[in-house]
């Protein structure tokens, strides 16, 4: 006899099968750099996926040991990770990524390079034991004020985003790592971050078809193994429910009209767009009923109680008739089908040749350099003023960004400080104390205080160098302006090479 926390009591194999299927569709996270006992126990009870975040990663060796620990309990476990490269990295959360993000790759617009970068990133993931990547972002960044997508997108042109999404999927899966194309049906035209509230996209279906859905069609044609839903309201598709909870969006549109037959996974259900509106239990039930096959949870809620709550909610929903038993069984089978694919594709990682420098080569090619007058590379250490906005939750605050560390390597003695708010420009001038100023910004066009700070710096010091590490929408200014199209470590290195005259010829 098994008693569930929800109050549902049942016995026999049918109940065991329900509980196993309910566990199978969950993708939970945990805290720490080793697997807790409760997680290992649930793997033995049917849990098929584990989600990794930056808090779970210390070194490549530690991550390999962790994934081996998981596979000792369940050999075919899906080890999911949010490794986009660029600004969103978990493998290199404390150092910054060795790979530029999507916006830099879109700026280069070389689909072979994008595929090569994705293959090398996949090879490194597979080497550490991760086999399911919540990437790439296929969102068309049509709203330049978007607070959560930005440089995570390949760009604002649907055809560009489509071809690079397909190349990324192809490269990642060639390394034996399942791609998860996100955020369906497209998060690029939002002005709200769904981590904080429910965004709304008010355009007609013709715009959605031509703009937002084009990259997902390309990903499906490329064979993406998974698609992640977005917590967004798109009234032209569904007037009441966010996409994650909508049968019209997940089943009628994605499965029916677009012909997609792979795994559908939700974005994290503890994000406020779902949690504050429906609650994680009801939200998970509605998502599976709508057509989702896997529930991502664990970025914020990373404990056993969360797993129990969601398992029991799904079982109770089947018992009450709110969730058809065959829908839950179908979702669980799709998860198991993906575990079988990853097991068969694992050998691809061993055959993937390493190219550790491909990310740096891509970052160098992505630079857009504007010189206001004849520029002479720096020979003396400058002062790096980082005009720092609040990071979005997807990026987080753990990962370093900027050019100070790389400039310090090339020009020892480089100093730096972080500034924000209405007095940032004057404070940076005072801190520089006469040194040449390198001002580093991120999405200047979205932050009036940042633009004002640059006004102050350039008025007082016309020789100020500006490095834009976000989406370069604001006009170029300063004696030298470098748009990196992202804030990955390699983007900072590529910019530092130009500033210090150490750029690699031909890159």
Descriptors:
507 residues; 42% helix; 18 helices; 16 strands; 6-stranded mixed beta sheet
Summarize the structure.
The protein has helices spanning 13-24, 37-45, 60-73, 102-108, 111-128, 158-174, 205-212, 214-221, 247-257, 272-275, 280-290, 304-320, 325-351, 358-366, 404-410, 424-432, 448-460, 489-499, and strands at 2-3, 9-10, 26-27, 49-52, 78-81, 132-133, 178-184, 226-229, 263-265, 295-296, 368-371, 383-387, 415-419, 437-441, 465-468, 480-483. With 507 residues, it is an alpha/beta fold.
Strands, helices and their partners?
Layout: E1 2-3, E2 9-10, H1 13-24, E3 26-27, H2 37-45, E4 49-52, H3 60-73, E5 78-81, H4 102-108, H5 111-128, E6 132-133, H6 158-174, E7 178-184, H7 205-212, H8 214-221, E8 226-229, H9 247-257, E9 263-265, H10 272-275, H11 280-290, E10 295-296, H12 304-320, H13 325-351, H14 358-366, E11 368-371, E12 383-387, H15 404-410, E13 415-419, H16 424-432, E14 437-441, H17 448-460, E15 465-468, E16 480-483, H18 489-499
Parallel strand pairs: 3-10, 4-5, 5-6, 6-7, 7-8, 8-9, 12-13, 12-14, 14-15, 15-16
Antiparallel strand pairs: 1-2, 11-16
Helix pairs in contact: 1-12, 1-13, 4-14, 5-6, 6-8, 11-12, 14-18, 15-18, 16-17
Q: How does this structure look, described?
A:
The chain has 507 residues and is α/β, with parallel strands linked by helices. The protein has helices at residues 13-24, 37-45, 60-73, 102-108, 111-128, 158-174, 205-212, 214-221, 247-257, 272-275, 280-290, 304-320, 325-351, 358-366, 404-410, 424-432, 448-460, 489-499; strands spanning 2-3, 9-10, 26-27, 49-52, 78-81, 132-133, 178-184, 226-229, 263-265, 295-296, 368-371, 383-387, 415-419, 437-441, 465-468, 480-483. The strands form four sheets. The chain has a six-stranded parallel β-sheet, sandwiched between helices. Strands 11-16-15-14-12-13 form a six-stranded mixed β-sheet, covered by helices on one side. Helix 15 links the parallel strand 12 (383-387) and strand 13 (415-419). Helix 1 (13-24) packs across helix 12. The protein is globular, with a radius of gyration of 23 Å. The model is unreliable at 1-11 (pLDDT under 50).
